[in-house]
């Protein structure tokens, strides 16, 4: 719920409120084994930090989020996070790193598409 509340605040241009909702959600799940929730909250927080121009903090959040998401096994969320992380690399002028991340994301999205068509 706090994830979505943050997204709504973000879309309304209330960035500080969005960050507060994400922080509140992180505080709730920090002590649990909810890797997926922690990863998702860190990931969306990274996107917002990147949008605000705080690339160093965004990079840190992306790295931590991807570690948690990878362990949770959510390929869709991981591929999406890789896509956005690639954008952060492009903002830093790191084209080769961005290309590698985008390629990994594309492979994951294709794998997900294959899995979906088998059902």
String of helices and strands = HHHHHH
What is the overall silhouette?
Answer: globular
Main beta sheet strand tally, sense and closure: none
Please mark out the parts with pLDDT under 50 across 5 or more consecutive residues, or reply none: none
Helical content class: over 70%
Q: How would you state the average pLDDT, rounded?
A: 92
How many H/I helices?
A: 6
Characterise this structure.
The protein is built from six helices and no strands. The chain has 119 residues and is mainly alpha-helical. Helix 3 runs antiparallel to helix 4 and helix 4 packs antiparallel against helix 5 (75-91). The longest helix is centred in the last third of the chain and has 24 residues, at 95-118. The mean pLDDT is 92.
Features:
mainly alpha; about 120 residues
Write the layout of secondary structure elements.
Blueprint: H1 2-11, H2 15-29, H3 35-51, H4 55-72, H5 75-91, H6 95-118
Pfam families: TPR_12, TPR_4
InterPro entries: TPR-4, TPR-like_helical_dom_sf, TPR_rpt
GO molecular function: identical protein binding
Short overview:
The chain is mostly helical.
């Amino acid at each position: 719920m706090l994830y979505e509340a943050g997204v709504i605040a973000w879309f309304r241009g209330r960035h500080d409120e969005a960050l507060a909702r994400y922080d509140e959600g992180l505080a709730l799940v920090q002590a649990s084994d909810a890797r997926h929730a922690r990863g998702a909250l860190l990931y969306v927080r990274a996107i917002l930090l990147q949008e605000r121009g705080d690339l160093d903090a965004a990079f840190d959040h992306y790295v931590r989020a991807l570690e948690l998401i990878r362990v949770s096994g959510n390929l869709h969320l991981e591929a999406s996070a890789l896509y956005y992380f690639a954008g952060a690399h492009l903002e830093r002028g790191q084209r080769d790193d961005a290309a590698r991340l985008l390629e990994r994301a594309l492979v994951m999205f294709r794998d997900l598409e294959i899995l979906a068509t088998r059902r």
